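Predict the holo structure. Ligand: pyridoxal-5'-phosphate.
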Amino acid sequence: MSFAKRMSNIQASATVAAFARAGELKRQGVDLISLVAGEPDFDTPEHIQDAGIEAIRTGKTKYTNPASGIPELKDAICNKFQQDNNLSYAPQQIIVTCGAKQTIFDAIVVLIDEGDEVVIPAPYWTSYADQVRLMGGTPVIVPTAPDRNFCMTARQLQDAISSRTKMVMLNSPCNPTGGVYSHSDLQAIADVIAWAGIYVITDEIYEKLLYDGAQHISIASLIPELMNKTLTVNGVSKAYAMTGWRVGYGAGPQDLIANMIKVQSQETTNTCSISQYAALEALNGPQGCVETMRQAFEKRRNQIVEGLNNLPGFQCRTPQGAFYAFPDVTKLFGASSSWGKIESDIDLCNFLLDEARVACVPGAGFGTSGYLRFSYAASSQDIQEALDRIQTALTQLN
Ligand SMILES: Cc1ncc(COP(=O)(O)O)c(C=O)c1O
């Protein structure tokens, strides 16, 4: 078959591919511990499940009107932005999509022309760079430093901006590093963005998963004029254990949102009607479930970071947000066993899959080789078992 040229510019998502590989091995009966999935292992809280069931039973099973999100949900999203993020949006500035992934993609479709540059700090969530490439844009990757919690500095951003820069992508708390931008760092970045007059997509999907007193700040709240240049992205997947329901949303300048709605009208029409009613309950209903899950993640974070740091060759910073540990494993490069020689994070990931039956994702998938990403959105027992298995497998290496 002859495929469009743009297909040679992109790869399948590294995380989705690793998730599929782990799933396939499990289906084959392999006793595998998978710390791949970027999704809470908890069930969707019961009151949210009930809202979905109620939506089915009361006939909320048609195309939604408007397709860009039911009015009640848009109102709830506006309230959430006001209360949590000090951002004032009107309903016509909101789009509800099939996951935050689609919000981001729709914005890239609307904003990025062939040759436009998009600044992306690395490590980055796998989809950003490929979505930009798919639309003919050029990702300009800015490597960040571990001792700055993998956060890009204002100076780095300024140096990366050229006359072709259209946009910058921010993600705090970050997948895969768990890094959270401080108020002062974000303010300095906001100043550069305002000075350059470029757009910013700020992916805030992990905002509720913060530890050690870290605070989440929405960049659009820092400088009034940024409201016209910012798409603030969020969703219910991570905070409410609703990954499979596929509800994300974005808020931004009305003309940007109107164009994104136009794109969505030609691709998915609307997000699943049932899921929209469940998301409405997630945002308007009791919020205790969010804190309960956050506390569980915090315990598991402490467990996995300590465990990883006790493994030979692993150095893991303590992440301040999200639910990923991202250890540096470069000290293991050059080691070998009857399995073969470990020369990269991809090799180590394969070694752990084969010899420890533990699945994780290589840092290369996030634009930063030398690291592995472990999701700790898994039970404490699985985390402990994974650590024990890795410890045993590493004894093979010389
Ligand atoms: C940083 C980041 N943004 C967006 C998403 C997509 O979330 P959704 O399930 O809402 O599409 C993910 C999911 O892994 C993510 O890690």
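The mean pLDDT is 96. Residues 38, 99-101, 125, 171, 175, 203, 205, 235, 237, 243, 248 surround pyridoxal-5'-phosphate (CB under 6 Å).
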